[in-house]
Amino acid sequence: MSLIEEIRQAVIVGDAPDAKAKVEQALNDNLTADTVLREGLIDAMREVGQLFEEGDFFVPEMLIAARAMKGALDLLKPHLVEEGVEPLGKVAIGTVKGDLHDIGKSLVAMMMEGAGFELVDLGVDVSPDKFISVIQDGADIVAMSALLTTTMPNMKLIIEEIEAAGLREQVVVMVGGAPVTQAFADQIGADGYAADASSAARKAQELIGR
Amino acid sequence: MLCSSSHKPLCECPSVSPVRQATHAYTPLSDADITRIHDASLTVLERTGVEVTSAEALAIFQQAGAAIDPDRSRVFLPRGMVEDVLAQACHRFTLAGRDEAHDLDMGGERVYMGTGGAAISVLDLDGTVRESRLTDIAEFARLVDCLHNIHFYQIPVVARDIPDHLHDINQVYAALSNTTKHIQTNLNSLSSARDVMALATMVAGSPAALAAHPFLSFVTCCVNSPLRYDPLPTALMIELVRNDLPVAISCAPITGMTAPMALAGSLVQINAEVLSGLVLANLVRPGARILAGYVPTVADHRQGGVAVGTPEFALMNAAAAQLAHFYDIPIYNSAGTADSKLPDVQAGYEKAMTSTIAALSGANFIHHTAGMLESLLCVASEQYVIDDDINGSVMRLVRGIEVDDQTLSVDVIDEVCNGGQFYLENSQTLELMRSECFYPRITDRKPRIDWEAKGSLDMRERARHRACTILTTHQPTRLPAAVDQAIRARFEILLPPELSGSPIPLGYPVQLPERIVEAEEAEFAVYECDRR
Ligand code: B1M
Questions:
Q1: Ligand 1: which of A108, A147, A148, A196 to mutate, most ligand atoms within 8 Å of CB?
Q2: How far apart, in Å, are the Cα atoms of B289 and each of B60, B91, B241?
Q3: How remote is the CA of residue B290 from the centroid of ligand 1, in Å?
Q4: Using one digit for the tens of pLDDT, what is the confidence trace for B376-409?
Q5: Which of B63, B277, B433, B523 sits at 20 to 30 Å (Cα–Cα) from B292?
Q6: Which residues in chain B touch residue A196, judged by CB atoms under 8 angstroms apart?
Q7: Ligand 1 centroid to B509 CA: how many Å?
Q8: Atom 87 in ligand 1: which residue has the minimum CA distance?
C-alpha cells in the first residue's frame, strides 16, 4: 500500500493518531502537502461521504473520520501555506439566539470540516454580535441553524445586522434547520440553503466557488 | 370541491370509552433490572450531578442540602436527599376535563392516550403540506372532541400565522373553546404564563376552583440532555408549581447523541434527569402534582435524525412506565409516533406498535398518540381519525380478558350444546356483544362486494371522509358566552369568532379530493358518528 493510500485508510476508519503519523511520514518523504491534502485527506472524505450516502457508514463513523481528517489537516496547514495553497475557507456556524437545538448544526459543522473547511463553532443561542465579530475576524461563510419557528426570524435579523455593519459583501450566508426552506432563505436574502448536512457541505463549496 | 352540508348534525359526542387498569401486560424490565437502573441513576445524580444555571433553582437545591460546584454550576444530589424528597411526591391526582366525563385519573396503571404537540406543519385533507396556523388548533380540538379514543388534547401545532408573544394565550383559548377534554400546553414566557393562568382562572371561576378542577395542565422541558437544566422552562415549572397547577416535567434525551447508545444507559440518564426534576418540584411545593415526563428518544444513526416510530422507542417508553410505577408517580410518555410523512402503511405499523407497547406497560398520560407524523414535525386531520381506531383497539388490549364465573360460560356452553343451535341467539351474546368487542369506526371488515360498492376507499380515504364529516357538523360545547366575552375583552384574541363563540356554520368549508366526495352519499350512513 502506498503511503497516500495508508493515509486515506487511516482517515476512513477514523484512526486519528495513525492519520497524523502517516501524514508526518509523508512530509518527511517529501510528498507535497497539496498532494497529501487532495489525494489523501479530501479523497478519503469523499469516499466516507459516499459510504454514508449508500447507508454503509453511520453518522458516528463519519464523525470520527472527520476528526481524523481535521487532526491531519492541522499538521498540514503550515506546509500548505508554504506551498501557497489557498485554504478552502473559514466557516462560522451557530444556532441562532433563543434556540438550543444543536445536533443538526453539529452534523453540518462536521461535514463541512470533512470537506476541508476551517470551522469556528459558535455553539447555541448565538447573538448577532457574535456572528458580526467572526466575520470581522475573517470568516468567509456564516452558517446559521434554527429548529424553532419562533427563532427563524432571528436569521433575518442577523442578516440585517451584517448589512448594517457593512459586511454583507464579504461573507456568504447559509441557513438551514428543520423549519427552514429554500423559499424562506430567498425571502430573507440568504445566499444558500441546504436540507441536510452533506448537501450543506456541497453547497458551501459551490458558494465559495472552489 | 367542498364537503356537502346536507348532513344531519351528527356528533352528540358520547362519553369516553372505559379506561381500565392495565395488568402489567408488558414489562421489558425485570424487577432486578429496575432496581439496578434506579441505583445507577442515583449514582449519576450523586457523582456526575446536573448543570443548573438558573440562580433560583440552584438556591433551592443548595438549601435542601445538595452539594454545589459554583464554577461549573453543577449540583450533586445525595442519595438520601433524593429519596427523602421523593417520599413526599404526589402519587395520584385528577387532570380534569371542562366536562367532568373527561376527567383523567392519573396514577397507578390507568392508561390514557391523547395528542402530542408542537408540530410545525399540517398535511391538509387535499394532500398539500403547509405551515400550521391558529385555526388548526381550534379545528383539531373540535375533531378530537368527537373522537372517543383520544382522551386529552395537548396543543398539537404552533400557530405560525400570529405574533410569537400572542401564541400561548391564543393557543390555549382556541383549544379550550373547542373541546371539553383536558388541555395541556407548553409556554413560551413567564408573562404569557401569567396570562394563561388568568384566562384559565376566568373559565374556572377562581384560582381555587382551577386548582381543584385543573382542566389545563402544562408541559415544561426543563432538561436539555445530558443533565443540563434549561433556565426558561425551569423558571416556568417553578412558577406553575407555586400556583399549584399540574405540570409534566419532560426530559427527551436521544440515544447515542445526547444519551448513551446503550438503551439501559439511556434509561439511567433519563431517570436521573426526571428524578432531579421531581426533587426540584417537590422542594418548591411538597406533594406538587407532577407527571414524570420520560421521552426517551432514539436516533437513526444512518442519517442522524431522531426516530420515534421505532421498536427501541417503544421498548424504552414501556421501561419508563415500569420505572414510574416503581416510584408510584404518574407518568407522561409517548407513543403513536411515526416517522412516515403521510398516513400510509409505515405510519400504521409505527403507531400500532408504539401505542400497543406503551399502553400495555400501563403508562398514564401517553401523548403524541394521535395525528402526529414526520418525526413530530407534521400532523394531519385524517390521521387523528385513523389513530382513534388504533387507540380504541389498543385500549381493548389494555382491558384484557375478564375471567369470572359468568365469563367462563360453562352453563351457556351446556345450554347451547343441548338444544340451542349457535351462540348467536343466546342471551349472553346479546348481553355482551357490544361490550366484549371493540368496534373500530372506519376500519373495514365488510365483504369485498360491499366495500367496492362504497367506492373501494382505503383507510386514509375513509378517514378523510370522516374527518370532513365531523368538521362540517360537530358543534362543541363552547365556553359560557359571558366568560367568552370577558376573555375576548381582556386579551388580544385572534381566533375568528365563528371558531369559538357562535355555532359552527354547518357545511364549514373543508376541502376533500373529488373521488372521496363522490363516495360520500353511500358512505354517510356507515360513517355517521357513534351513538353508543
Ligand atoms: C447553515 O446551513 C445549514 C444547513 C442545514 C442544516 C442546518 C444549517 N441546520 C440543520 N440543518 C439540516 O441538517 C441537519 C442534519 O441533516 C438537519 O438538522 P436537524 O436539527 O433538523 O436534525 C437533527 C440531525 C436531528 N433532529 C433534532 O435534533 C431535533 C429533533 C426534535 C425532536 C427536538 C429535540 C431533539 C429537542 N428539542 Co425541540 N425538538 C424538535 C425536533 C423535532 C424534529 N423532528 O425536528 C422540535 C424542533 N422542538 C420543538 C419544541 C417545541 C421545543 N424543543 C425544545 C427542546 C428540545 C430538546 C432540548 C429536548 C432537544 C434538543 C437537544 C439538542 N441538543 O439539540 C424546546 C426549546 C428549547 C430551545 N430554546 O431551543 C421546545 C420549545 C420544547 C419545550 N416545550 O420547551 C418543536 C418545534 C416548535 C417550534 N415552534 O418550532 C419540535 C418540532 C418538536 C415538537 N414537535 O414539539 C437539517 O435540518
A1: A147
A2: 18, 8, 8
A3: 25
A4: 999 999 999 999 999 999 999 999 999 999 999 9
A5: B63
A6: 303
A7: 34
A8: B118
Query: Pick from B254, B301, B377: which is nearest to A60 by CB?
Result: B301
Q: Which domains does chain A have, with CATH numbers?
A: 3-83 (1.10.1240.10), 90-207 (3.40.50.280)
Cα(A146) to ligand 1 centroid in Å equals 8
Q: Are B285 and B244 in contact (CB under 8 A)?
A: yes
Question: Regarding predicted confidence, which is higher, B409 or A116?
Answer: B409
**Helix (H, G, I), strand (E, B), or coil: what is residue B34?**
helix
Greatest C-alpha distance within chain B? 85
Ligand 1 close to Cβ of residue A158 (< 6 A): no
Radius of gyration of chain A (CA): 18
Ligand 1 pocket residue status of A150, Cβ below 6 Å: yes
Q: Distance between CA atoms of A145 and A102, rounded to whole angstroms? A: 8
Exposure of B228 by Cβ count < 10 A (0-12 exposed, 13-18 middle, 19+ buried)? Answer: middle
- B359-393 in b/e burial notation, b at 16+ Cβ within 10 A? bbbbbbbbbbbbbbbbbbbbbbbbbbbbbbbbbbb
What's the pLDDT at A1?
A: 81
| DSSP letter for each residue of A109-145 | HHHHHHTT-EEEE--SSB-HHHHHHHHHTT-SEEEEE
Q: What is the pTM of this model?
A: 0.93
- C-alpha cell of B396? 381493548
Query: Residue B505: is the preceding peptide bond cis (ω within 30°)?
Result: no
Q: Which three cell numbers stand for residue B73?
A: 454550576
Count how many Cα atoms sit within 13 Å of the Cα of residue B126 in the half-sphere of its side chain: 10
Residue B523: which pLDDT band, with cuts at 50, 70 and 90? very low
Cβ of A149 and B120 within 8 Å?
yes
The yes-or-no verdict on residue B106 having pLDDT over 80 is yes
Q: Which residues of B touch A123 (CB under 8 A)?
A: none
Note the pLDDT tens digit of each residue in A63-79: 999 999 999 999 999 99
- Would you call A59 and B304 a contact, using CB atoms and an 8 Å cutoff? yes
Cα of B300 vs centre of ligand 1, distance in Å, is 15
Cell 458558494: give the residue: A207
Packed helices A43-53 and A3-12: angle between N→C axes, nearest 10 degrees: 40
Contact across the interface for B304 and A103, Cβ inside 8 Å = yes
Mutation target to probe the B interface, by most B beta carbons within 10 A, among A58, A96, A97 is A58
User: Would you report the helix, strand and coil content of chain A in percent, each value rounded to 5?
Assistant: 60, 10, 30
Q: How far apart are CA A94 and CA A122, in angstroms?
A: 5
- Our CA-based measurement puts residue B160 at a distance from the nearest CA of chain A, in whole angstroms, of 7
Q: Three-state secondary structure along B424-436?
A: CCCHHHHHHHHHH
The 10 Å Cβ neighbour count of residue B343 is 26
